[in-house]
Specification:
The chain has about 325 residues and is an alpha+beta fold. The protein folds into two domains: about 25-175, Lysozyme, CATH 1.10.530; about 190-330, endopeptidase fold (from Nostoc punctiforme) (Alpha-Beta Complex). The chain is about 30% helix and about 10% strand. The chain has ten helices and nine strands. The chain has helices at about 50-65, 70-85, 110-115, 120-130, 140-150, 155-160, 160-175, 190-195, 235-240, 250-255, and strands at about 25, 40-45, 45-50, 260-265, 275-280, 285-295, 300, 310-315, 325-330. The strands form three sheets. The protein has a four-stranded antiparallel sheet with strand order 5-6-7-8. Strands 1-2-3 form a three-stranded antiparallel sheet, covered by helices on one side. Strands 4-9 form a two-stranded antiparallel sheet. The longest helix is centred in the N-terminal third of the chain and has 16 residues, at about 50-65. The chain is elongated and about 65 Å long. InterPro entries: NLP_P60_dom, Papain-like_cys_pep_sf, PG_Endopeptidase_C40. This is NlpC/P60 family protein. GO terms for molecular function: cysteine-type peptidase activity.
Length: about 325
């Protein structure tokens, strides 16, 4: 499959939080794209949550939503993140603590790379939360402490009102997450499939493909890619296929967490869902390939150097196939 993409580190800035009342102000999306009404930055008196901090909130609420957990889980997770990192994805902490929830690889939370992935970190936090007997009836601060086992147990309850206001404010103003600038209707998935299938036989070109069609990419791919033979890499084909409906991120790894994407079980895929492969199916950071479902059991893809865009069968037990597909909406 395509070459493994290098990780992209996202910088986040310090949250200044000291207010009792939160007003939501619309300016721009967490991904940097604009939209009508410009929804996205929450305002605290005297300060603002940045796009990056909003992104952390969106990830938390999005993962909770995908798991169909009650809003209480969002409040517990957000108040924990406020305490542990001020809604930042920290690359340092006490001893080996890392990430949004300051999880420690030495304590079994995952590898350093995994706990630095906010999607993975949120999932691990929720795994520990829902494993608690009676967590839904616990005071949120108690539940957070039971997960984190902090030496300062009172800190979480202190942030509960703020977390509740953030969750309520964001949810009430921007609706479904993870992307507040995504209108609530589906993309034209059949059209995306047809656009991808129309490229059958086009060369695989590393870095190739835009919303407008095939390109040569970075020029490093061997024939059939060449100066006069443009083509696509795996994520470039997705970028082109969905272009009339939604603009996807450029890389397969980013497309797995694309704004407007919903994760669905592999057994529930429909035409137009995206399938992903990684070197470690537990780690979205290891994703290196993406393909588009034509029908369940059939896909279209730009596979690797030296090959062309193809349609082929796939199996649910395919090595490296990530445990969920992504269905786009916009």
């Amino acid at each position: 499959m395509g070459r493994i993409l290098s990780a992209i580190a996202a910088a986040v800035t310090l949250l200044v939080a000291a207010a009792a009342v939160i007003t939501v102000v619309f300016t721009s999306s967490a991904t940097g794209s604009s939209c009508d009404g410009g929804r996205a930055v929450k305002h605290l008196p005297g300060s603002e949550l940045t796009d990056e901090q909003l992104g952390i909130v969106q990830v938390i609420l999005g993962v909770v939503e995908q798991r169909q957990l009650p809003e209480r889980a969002s409040i517990i997770a957000v108040e924990t993140a406020l305490v542990e990192s001020a809604l930042r994805n920290l690359d340092h902490g006490d001893r080996d603590s890392l990430g949004v929830f300051q999880q420690r690889p030495s304590q079994g939370w995952g590898t350093p790379e995994q706990v630095m992935d906010p999607v993975y970190a949120t999932g691990k936090f929720l795994d520990a939360l829902i494993a608690l007997d009676g967590w839904e009836s616990m005071p949120p601060g108690w539940a957070a402490q039971a997960v984190q086992r902090s030496a300062f147990p009172g800190r979480y309850a202190e942030r509960e009102p703020e977390a509740t206001q953030i969750v309520t404010g964001v949810r009430g103003q921007v609706g479904d997450l993870p992307d507040p600038c995504v209108p609530p209707h589906d993309v034209d998935a059949p059209a995306a499939v047809q656009r991808a299938l129309a490229q059958l036989g086009m060369p695989y070109c590393w870095g190739g493909g835009t919303t407008d069609g095939p390109t040569r990419g970075d020029g490093s791919s061997p024939p059939p890619c060449g100066p006069n033979s443009p083509g696509f890499d795996c994520s470039g084909l997705m970028l082109y296929a969905f272009a009339p409906s939604v603009t996807l991120p450029r890389t397969s790894r980013a497309q797995y967490a694309a704004p407007g994407g919903t994760h669905v079980a592999l057994t529930d895929v429909v035409p137009g869902d995206m399938l992903f492969w990684g070197t470690d199916t537990r780690d979205p950071g290891s994703i290196h390939h993406v393909a588009l479902v034509v029908t369940p059991g059939q896909l279209v893809e730009a596979p690797e150097d030296g090959k062309t865009v193809q349609q082929r069968a796939y199996r649910l037990d395919s090595p490296g196939l990530m445990p969920s597909a992504v269905r786009m909406s916009r």
